[in-house]
Amino acid sequence: MIKKVAIIGPQNCGKTTCWHHIGYELKSKTRVIGMGAEIARTMMEMTTLGLLGQLTLLHRQIEQELRLEQWYDKIVTDRSVFDTIAYAGQIYEENKMSLFDYHMIRKFVFYWSTIHPYAAIIYLKPLPIEDDPQRGKDVLRRQSQMNRMFDILLLELKRRFSMMTSPETKLYEIDVNNKKERSKQVYELVEEILFHEDK
Predict the structure, then answer these.
(1) pTM (2 decimals)?
(2) Which residues 6+ apart lie within 8 Å of 150 measured at CB?
(3) Cα separations (Å) of 22 from 45, 71, 191?
(4) 17 class by beta-carbon count within 10 Å (0-12 exposed, 13-18 middle, 19+ buried)
(5) I need a labelling partner for 193 at 20 to 30 A (CA). Which of 22, 76, 117, 151 fits?
(6) How do the domains of the chain map onto residue ranges?
(7) pLDDT per residue over 185-196, tens digit each?
């Protein structure tokens, strides 16, 4: 059985730092694990292209996860298909996507996640906002807007997962602000989910 854990959250919440820490710690213990990198960082131009950009990123995310599922039964990803809903919501609010397209993306994401479910979603609450030159101008405004989109997504995930009679996906929240402690908590949680939960 495939166990896939996704770390989600807005920009600058420490996803990639936690992801690298998990990979280092687990592989140093000779654990075999598939690691799915953050695909948006290598395709930053797609993040501003409205529907086309979000569909491209979603396709790449799904493609990466399917490849990992072919080779590994334990997987950790630095993003999930659910992230697309938050980013699409931001783009819709900026009038770069229609309401119809936004709902189409949401519907597809939730449908796909029932076919290829995550064992767990780990949501990292936003850290204090930091400037990130790679993300472009107007960082503070966009970061605040993105934090709100992820808060809305989190409420949606809680509602959907609570309605399932036998939920396949567990939802966790990490709220500690210290980056080192945050990475440690996420690593310990991932190790428990992937390697100890069924024992």
Answers:
(1) 0.88
(2) 8, 9, 10, 86, 123, 126
(3) 28, 19, 8
(4) middle
(5) 151
(6) 3-196
(7) 999 999 999 988
Lowest mean pLDDT across 10-19, 23-32, 72-81: 23-32
Dist. CA 162–CA 39, nearest whole Å: 29
Q: What is the mean pLDDT of the chain?
A: 86
Whether the Cβ atoms of residue 9 and residue 1 lie closer than 8 Å to each other = no
CATH of domain 3-196: 3.40.50.300
| Pairing between β-strand 120-124 and β-strand 34-36 as defined by DSSP bridges | unpaired
Over residues 42-85, the pLDDT tens digits come to 666 666 678 888 999 999 999 999 999 999 999 999 999 999 99
Q: What is the 3-state secondary structure (H, E, C) of the chain?
A: CCEEEEEECCCCCCHHHHHHHHHHHHHHCCCCCEEECCCHHHCHHHHHCHHHHHHHHHHHHHHHHHHHHHHCCEEEECCCCCHHHHHHHHHHHCCCCCHHHHHHHHHHHHHHHHHCCCCEEEEECCCCCCCCHHHCCCHHHHHHHHHHHHHHHHHHHHHHHHHCCCCCCEEEEECCCCHHHHHHHHHHHHHHHHHHCCC
Cβ distance 8 to 80 under 8 Å?
yes
As a whole number of Å, the end-to-end CA separation of the chain is: 14
